[in-house]
Automatic annotation (TrEMBL):
Native source organism of the sequence: Halorientalis pallida
Name recorded for this polypeptide: Cytochrome P450
PANTHER family referenced in this protein's UniProt entry, alphabetically: CYTOCHROME P450, CYTOCHROME P450 12A4, MITOCHONDRIAL-RELATED
Family in the record: Belongs to the cytochrome P450 family.
PROSITE patterns: CYTOCHROME_P450
Amino acid sequence: MLDRWASRDEIDLLEQMERVTLSIIGTAMFSADVERHAADIRAALQVLRRGFQREVGVVPTFPEWIPSPHNRRMQGAIDDIDAVVHELIDARRGRADEYDDLLSKLLTARTDEGARMDDEQIRDELVTVLLAGHETTAAALTWTWYLLANNPGVHERLHDHAADADPTETVGSSAGAADDASFVKQCVQEAMRIYPPVPVITREAIDPDEIDGYEIPAGAEVVLSQFVVHRDPDLWEDPLAYRPERFAPGEREAQPTYSFFPFGGGQRICIGRLFALAEAQLILARVVSEVRLTLRSPTHDTPAVDSAVTMVPDEPVEMAVTDW
Ligand code: HEM
């Protein structure tokens, strides 16, 4: 990515972050070059985002089996993503033993009774990891760069720390490289607090309940919003201020447990959270050591957000790439 930037003086940040995280998830999980499909996946996801927003909106949409223009567009986008995933599966069939990655594990997995996963299950798992495994981290990084560009003091501090940081070393020792690494991590966590890549999750109530005086009937869909909780002034002082030191060792522990839950919680907590955090820190540390990203647009204070499962800026974030 940095090589690619060498010949450019301005980049579309989200697009670049999506490309690099797609490339990483493709290599790590499927040992494949998925990045070459980046433009198709991006276009398909854009259609699905718009479609999702329509489906949760107030204007009713037709059921899936009716060939309405909306449904045809959605199906077309799903087919485009399926095509990428089926290409991965087809290329691997008969060669699963040659690789030790998630794709091979899914193809060779057996239940205790010896049954294998059917094609649809394998496809579902792959699509989940492909999408959940790159869009979210790209959103986290985009917001982190955006906040750094708007907080030059923090950006410079990060630059000073990153050169010595080993982002795989974010716990334990209180001195030296671990401290530097810890600051890289704090920058990502604080960005995910203000702009959580997944702004809401939902749960279905199994039984009736009462929470803080509110009756929850059985079957109700309960919405838990990271976006709201992470910005609650009762939980976070001056909540819109970007202050990575809120996550410094010792500080975070003083906060109530679920005042920060970018990866959800409980049994369905994000399976990729350690992967995502390590990846985001490595990208951040490497890029900030080499180049300085300066915001060209948007220049207004609070960018509108576009929320559809993940939350990204509603307009392109253009960054200038320069030396420090
Ligand atoms: C900053 C990056 C990420 C964020 C903010 C994030 C956020 C989340 C959240 C909030 C959930 C829980 C959804 C719920 O409770 O309804 C979740 C689940 C999940 N995430 Fe992530 N995620 C990230 C990165 C990743 C990565 C890199 C992977 C794959 C390697 C991944 C794979 C998954 C999967 C498979 C689930 C479903 C787990 C289950 O239901 O048991 N995520 N993620």
